[in-house]
Amino acid sequence: MEQTPKYLPSIHTIAVIGGGSWATALIKIFTENGNTRINWWLRNADDVAYIKRYRSNPRYLTSVKLNPELVRPFEDIKAAVKEADAILLAVPAAFITSALSTLSAEDFEGKYVISSIKGMIPTHNTLVTEYIEEHFQVPHKMVAVIGGPCHAEEVAMEKQAYLSLASSSSRYATALAEMMHCRYINTTVIKDLYGVEYCAVMKNIIAIACGIAHGLGYGDNYQAVLVSNSMQEIKRLLKEVYKVKRDLTASAYLGDLLVTTYSQFSRNRTFGNMIGRGYTVKAAQMEMEMVAEGYYAVKSIHQIHTQYEDLNMPITTAVYNILYNKVSPSEEFLWLKEQLQ
To answer: Which NCBIfam families match (predicted)?
Structure first.
């Protein structure tokens, strides 16, 4: 990590919003230091009761044991955030507005916000942090993003992983990096908040494309070309929507893309694989029982794409056509393979 700035923000209690595998993994990481307290809000009252009794998530990463002295589950979201110094968002982007619907700007006042969401607000076509800043009047310097490359399942197994903490405030990012650094987690500080978010959104779309390719029977050679072309597509998008100096080969960008497009734990790749094998979108979603962020993200990115006449995004276009225009995956990929270099 870079040299620690002076006067780091003081964060003792974090309100975690969301009850999935990534929320569970992040709670495990934050409580490794033995100092950070977690107020954990879950939508399902039965899950709250189960966690209070058995100290584990009944639905996801059930092997992770929670420290009862540090982790308190809540049914009331207002009560969870009231005494927290920071709010960590770990709900799929498509459901974040409903999850936060009972909260107001007053509930966010004076609190840091951490987004671990790898998607966009579908009805707004905006990044999660942009929505939080505008809707809840949170200052830009009090917002941070947790980037990869990292899978929740490997966190549960305590396999070596890397996280990137992005914020326009290096002090805030450094404070989070220090809180999350432990035996199996390495952390890096980066200032490119929106760039990390856009890349996280795009890598899920690319992972769906890679899954479709695998389901259709395309091999490793094709996937290598697909992924390398996707980096060019991401670069072209970022040049239009958020042009700043960045190194896209860094772990927060390329690393996160690679782990999502190749890993067995990638739900977006799994979703795409099912589509390539002939599942309908609805059938794939029902069988997975988990949200593939890329399904919602590709619609938002496609709509952003149409605003720029000269922006070439063939992979995004192909995934959008398959998922939303119901074009045959095999036919669309015949077109796509001619667009790749």
So the answer is: PRK00094.1-2, PRK00094.1-4
Query: Any binding-site annotation on 175?
Result: no
Place of tokens 């593939």: 292
pTM above 0.85, yes or no: yes
Other CB atoms within 10 A of residue 325 CB: 9
Judging by beta carbons within 10 Å of its beta carbon (0-12, 13-18, 19+), is residue 57 exposed, middle or buried? buried
Which of 52, 203, 239, 243 does the annotation list as catalytic? 203
C-alpha span between 28 and 81 (Å, rounded): 19
44 is in an annotated binding site: no
Instruction: Write down all domains in the chain, each with its CATH number in brackets.
Output: 13-191 (3.40.50.720), 195-339 (1.10.1040.10)
Pairing state between β 37-41 and 71-74? parallel
Find out whether 204 is annotated in a ligand binding site: no
Residue 191: CA count within 13 A, CB half-sphere: 8
Catalytic (active site) residue 6: no
Burial 196-223 (b: 16+ CB within 10 A, else e): bbbbbbbbbbbbbbbbbbbbbebeeebb
Intra-chain end-to-end CA distance of the chain, in Å: 36
